[in-house]
Write a structure and sequence with these properties.
heterodimer; A: Rossmann fold; five-stranded parallel beta sheet; 5 helices; B: alpha/beta; Rossmann fold
């Protein structure tokens, strides 16, 4: 009897940034780690992508059209995909107000734009793995 | 004659009030916030120190939310309240407010998964709306 082959759904990531160079570097870094990456340069495209895919990771610039308008998008992503890892890219070193915005909009991490995309993706995946292991050990205890 | 003791039936039409733990070492702030949140329909328990809050969190209360000041017995001790609240099942929404936000304590709150951070002077209407949103979100997630 033929066995049904298990089809693993692709891991999806969304990257939203107005700079094509940044989008491209994140897309390469995420693709290298096995993600199918959807990119958006603006808010309407990002919202369209949210209606069409289920994302596990989202990397959003805190500045899309103007300063700070990426935060509400991060908040929407957190509400729609509560288990997703939502990271925000800040143009500068995160200060107290940026960290406060990250907490209040439900972002899991905030990175400085100067950090290389591969390093940011590595950090996101490491944190996802830690969270996954924690969840697995909890369910095995129960 | 036999006497039967029965427990009164729970009135299912009356939803349980949302239970809130408020933690602050300043009595006046605690009383003001208690009044505000009771007016919003919350049932409020208060603690005047981290130790008192940890005792309440360990006592089986099912808090819907915990709101804590950051600096009490010592600097950033509110993070310990937040840490303890995270271990409670089901996990309550966790809100920290402070007049002494710094990069290290804000970073610690973010890493810990604190749900909301308010800087003093706290805008009460924003705090209420954030809390209502966080609690509703949790309720929806439990049914998913």
């Amino acid at each position: 009897m033929a066995k049904a082959a298990s089809v693993k759904a692709p891991r999806l990531a969304l990257v939203v940034h107005s700079d094509v160079g940044v989008l491209s570097s994140f897309q390469s870094a995420l693709t290298e780690k096995g993600f199918v990456t959807i990119v958006a340069r603006d808010l309407p495209t990002a919202l369209l992508a949210i209606t069409q895919h289920y994302f596990e990771v989202a990397v959003v610039s805190s500045r899309l059209g103007e300063g700070g308008d990426g935060w509400p998008l991060a908040g929407v992503l957190h509400l729609v995909f509560p288990k997703a890892f939502v990271a925000v890219i800040s143009p500068d070193e995160p200060d107290v107000l940026v960290l406060q915005a990250a907490i209040n909009y439900g972002a899991r991490e905030v990175f400085d734009l100067s950090r290389p995309a591969a390093e940011v993706v590595g950090s996101i995946l490491a944190q996802l793995e830690i969270a996954g292991n924690r969840a697995a050990s909890k369910s095995s205890v129960q | 004659m036999l006497e039967y003791k029965t427990t009164p039936p729970r009135d299912l039409s009356m939803p349980r009030k949302r239970l809130l733990l408020l933690v602050d070492d300043e009595t006046s702030i605690l009383q003001t916030l208690r009044m505000v949140f009771e007016n919003e329909g919350y049932q409020v328990l208060t603690a005047q120190s981290c130790a008192e809050a940890l005792h309440l969190l360990d006592n089986g209360h099912k808090f819907d939310a915990v709101i804590t000041d950051l600096n009490m017995e010592r600097e950033d001790i509110g993070l310990e309240v937040a840490r303890a609240a995270q271990r409670v099942k089901p996990r309550p929404a966790i809100v920290i407010y402070t007049g002494f936000a710094s990069i290290p304590n804000s970073r610690a709150a973010l890493d810990m998964g604190v749900d909301y951070m308010a800087h003093k002077p706290v805008e009460i209407s924003e705090l209420i709306s954030a809390l209502n949103r966080l609690i509703s979100k949790r309720a929806v997630e439990r049914f998913r």
